[in-house]
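thread: overnight batch results

M.L. [08:02]
morning all. the overnight job finished for the chain we discussed friday. pasting input first so we're all looking at the same thing
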Amino acid sequence: MKSKIETLESKVDIMRDHWEHTQFRWYQIAIEKKDTGMKNILKQVARAPTSLREFILQNYIRQCKKKYAVAFMEWRLYFSKARANNNDSTQMEDSDVQEIIDDRLEYLLSEF
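M.L. [08:03]
and the structure it wrote out:
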């Protein structure tokens, strides 16, 4: 469990650094274009509490992982024909893979 938390924290660190860099770049562009509306919005975003930004980034990463899991299973299903040609009895049946996809999609969409 500790390694999962450390991994999530490291991903949040990367996302935070990228966000701060992007936000700074947007601010530079707003200054160049003399866009006071955009500068005001970016100032308000920068004033958001750190805890809120961390919460948003953590949830974003969790959602990405869920979508990745669905995409991976869909990829497995898509390439099932190649698996069938190999006649490998250790592979999952297409119906089992589809059931996993359906379950993960249901879980993913249940949060909305």
